[in-house]
Each structure stands twice: as structure tokens, then as C-alpha cells.
């Protein structure tokens, strides 16, 4: 079994980002990361995506980012870790209220973009974030990379984690993704093969040309990647044809069953 997740609700007002609609992408996934207003999203979009997720049976998570609409949250904003954690809690709380409105709960929290990558290497930021989530959302899953400081800190503290594999990002030798602000077009079939291999063999090819071990519970693709709909469909089809079941992340974690 594996979870398949994607970032949704990443427009703002009359502006949209990416080629595919949230409606179309929602049909491919088991977990949705909903933008919470700082890097993208607004109250009306949050409400719509939550309602859509409930209708389609897709689990929902908050996707908090840096306060950076212009840069889409993919630029590092210099701020104290305590300030960033308050921003995260503010955004998580906002989406939680929309979830309650529609009779559901938040399955997970997944920081967005540069904030996700900064936490991955910053033990202090990860620790403060985990401590805050343990008090406010102790049963909520935290999405992160297996090799990240975030994962190590959360596991040590007892906060349930879901480790991610990135379908549409490259990996380096450290087991981390190569961060990209803009993505080149990708071949959906090649991306699907990469995901199936990672599930079957636990291996991924790095930008240096090596094969490394990779451990994960959920596969992510991004809604703003060119050809996202075709990529998501190819990954889903490839996983199912290889005999995998696509389930929500909560079904993979004993603490949340």
C-alpha cells in the first residue's frame, strides 16, 4: 500500500497556478495538501478544496508556507524559528476550521516549498514545530523526508510521521530532493517507472548517477509541475498495474487508525 498526495488550492482570488484543475487532480490522489493562504490559497479556495475532498473521499492536510505570495513560498524568508512556527500554527488552524465546517478532520500537516526544505535541515525549527504540533495536533501526521531533521525529531518525540517520495523531483546522494523553483517538462511514463521502481525495489537514481536506498510511505507530485495531470495519471496507473493499493496516509500509520 502507498499514499499518493498532491498540493491543491494553489491559486489566489482570480489567479490560478498550473495547468490542471483541482477537480481533475483530486480524482487521482488519496491525500491532498491544501494551501493555507501564505504562499497561495485564500478562504474561498480552502473551503472549496475541503468540500471537494470530502465529496471525493480524499484525506486532507494543511500545507503551510512562508508568507510569500509573490515567490510562491519557494524563497527562504529570514525569520526567527518561533515566528515561523506561529505562522505554521496559524495556517493549520485556519484549515482545521474549514475541515470542521465540512464534517471532517485534518489528516496531516506538510510544510510547503522552501519552508519544508529549511525545516529538513534545521533541527531547531523542526523541534519547535514538532513541539507545537504535539500540543495542538498530536494525532495529526507530519509529512517529511526520511533523511530530514524533521523526521528524526518527530519520531524521537512521538509525533506520527509519513515519509515522502517525490515523483517529479530529482534526488542527490544524500537522499534529499534537489530543490527547484521552476520545473522542466517531464516524461510521465519515466516518472511512473521511477515511482514503481522505488516501491518495488526501494531504490532511486540520483543526479550523480548512483542508485541509493529510499524509504517512504507516500508519493508526492506537484500541481504546478508542467503536465501534472498526465504525470499523476501515469503514476497512479503504474502503481495499480504493479499491484499496489493507493490508500490515504492515515491507513498506513498505526497511531492514526
Summarize the SSE layout with pairings.
Elements: E1 3-8, H1 22-26, E2 31-35, H2 43-56, E3 59-63, H3 81-101, E4 106-109, H4 113-121, H5 123-136, E5 141-144, H6 149-157, E6 161-166, H7 188-201, E7 203-205, E8 211-213, E9 218-221, H8 228-241
Parallel strand pairs: 1-2, 1-9, 2-3, 3-4, 4-5, 5-6, 6-9
Antiparallel strand pairs: 7-8
Helix pairs in contact: 3-5, 4-5, 5-6, 7-8
Q: Provide mean pLDDT, rounded.
A: 95
Q: Which consecutive residue ranges, at least 5 long each, have pLDDT under 50?
A: none
The sequence of SSEs as H and E is EHEHEHEHHEHEHEEEH
- Sketch the major β-sheet: 7 strands, parallel, barrel
Number of strand elements: 9
**Judging from the principal axes of the Cα atoms, what is the shape?**
globular
What number of domains?
1
Protein name: Lactam utilization protein LamB
Organism: Azospirillum palustre
InterPro entries: Glyco_hydro/deAcase_b/a-brl, LamB/YcsF/PxpA-like
GO biological process, one term: carbohydrate metabolic process
Amino acid at each position: 500500500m502507498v499514499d499518493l498526495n498532491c498540493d491543491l488550492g494553489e491559486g489566489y482570488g482570480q489567479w490560478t497556478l498550473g495547468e490542471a484543475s483541482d477537480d481533475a487532480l483530486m480524482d487521482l490522489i488519496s491525500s491532498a495538501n491544501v494551501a493555507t493562504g501564505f504562499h497561495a490559497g485564500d478562504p474561498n479556495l480552502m473551503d472549496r478544496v475541503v468540500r471537494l475532498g470530502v465529496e471525493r473521499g480524499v484525506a486532507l492536510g494543511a500545507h503551510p508556507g512562508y508568507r510569500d505570495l509573490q515567490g510562491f513560498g519557494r524563497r527562504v524568508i529570514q525569520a526567527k524559528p518561533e515566528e515561523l512556527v506561529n505562522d505554521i500554527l496559524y495556517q493549520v488552524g485556519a484549515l482545521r476550521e474549514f475541515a470542521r465546517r465540512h464534517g471532517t478532520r485534518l489528516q496531516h500537516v506538510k510544510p510547503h516549498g522552501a519552508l519544508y526544505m529549511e525545516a529538513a535541515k534545521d533541527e531547531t525549527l523542526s523541534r519547535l514545530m514538532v513541539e507545537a504540533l504535539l500540543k495542538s495536533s498530536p494525532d495529526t501526521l507530519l509529512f517529511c523526508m526520511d533523511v530530514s531533521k524533521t523526521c528524526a525529531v518527530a519520531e524521537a518525540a512521538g509525533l506520527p510521521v509519513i515519509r515522502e517520495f517525490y515523483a517529479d523531483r530529482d534526488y542527490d546522494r544524500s537522499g534529499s530532493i534537489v530543490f527547484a523553483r521552476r520545473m522542466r517538462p517531464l516524461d510521465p511514463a519515466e516518472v511512473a517507472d521511477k515511482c514503481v521502481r522505488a516501491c518495488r525495489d526501494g531504490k532511486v537514481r540520483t543526479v550523480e548517477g548512483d542508485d541509493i536506498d529510499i524509504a517512504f510511505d507516500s508519493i508526492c507530485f506537484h500541481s504546478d509541475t508542467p503536465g501534472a495531470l498526465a504525470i499523476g495519471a501515469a503514476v497512479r496507473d503504474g502503481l495499480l498495474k504493479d499491484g499496489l493499493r493507493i490508500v490515504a496516509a492515515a491507513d498506513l500509520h498505526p497511531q492514526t487508525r
